[in-house]
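FYI - complex with 5'-(D-alanylamino)-5'-deoxyuridine, inputs then prediction.
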Amino acid sequence: MQSLKPERALWRPWWLMKYFVIVLLLSLWWYTLKYNCRYPEETFTCKTQLKNEQPNTVRMQRTDVLILSPWLAPIIWNGTYNLAILNAQFHHRDVRVGITVFAIKKYTVFVQNFIESAEKFFMIGHKVNYYVFTDRVSDIPNMTLNKDRNLTILKVPSYPRWQDVSMRRMEMIRDFAREKIASEDFLVCVDVDMKFNDEVGVEILSDLFGTLNPWMFGLPHEQYTYERNPQSEAYIPTDEGDFYYAGTFFGGSVEKVYKLTNFCHNAMMTDKAKNLEPVWHDESYLNKYLLYHKPTKILSPEYLWYDDLGIPAFLKRRRFLAVRKNYNEIRNR
Ligand code: 48C
């Protein structure tokens, strides 16, 4: 009996290998079909989308607070978004977030706690670059950060008056934004005498965002502390104004932050030439800008709170808290 030609024996290893590769390719093809997007241009993996609870068309997420502005910018409150979907979208975009903070003169004492709290709560799982602007570089402690997070210290000048220190941040952020236009996707600009107390994530990211000032929340418009001197570049007439935004927390795309800070700095310089200074300094210019350049997202007071205000029923999360301080102690030192 003619023996099987050895070269045709199916048990030969390379035949098995051939079958293994075919089975592997078929199963990969099946997995891709089942789990990955049918439409490659979709911005995130359907798998993530399918796992989360479905929205309910006849149930309002919040009935106690405004969650959408008249120009359809979302106002970000707990319970109005699904972070898993947003994280998938922003991970898909491989988003890079720069956060600027100023520690001039004695305010360097706040940096360590600020960064430590951000490492626990700010944009966890995403790429974050901290930019600390200071006149006292040696006072900034060395800190070990999590993966994909870096800290850069930038030496900047100080100013005698705390008002000028605060206002000149706009100029320094503008100049910085011009440099970073290609290396960050978003800039988040915050005060340093603060601490993150709960998650602050990609839900805040948008072309241009401001934060509702908690001290003005719910007050009638005429009580908003806008600049009311018509001579000032920050002037807002009594019958105008949407919301009262805080100078403590704003941001957006690098390009939009450049435009905002450039306006605020130029307006400040124009007023300075007329020996004018608005009632709330950089915050007054910020409110003027955001009145005529509507933000695409608005952060609720969850993102800026003072414990002196207590904890009202609408405040489900206190994500970013002011640190108690003795202003006389740390200003002009
Ligand atoms: O870094 C300083 N040093 C000062 O002497 C005065 C202000 N500032 C910066 O400007 C800090 O980043 C502050 O957070 C910010 C102004 N904001 C405040 O002083 C309170 N958060 C209102």
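The chain has eight helices and ten strands. Residues 243 and 264 are 18 Å apart (CA to CA).
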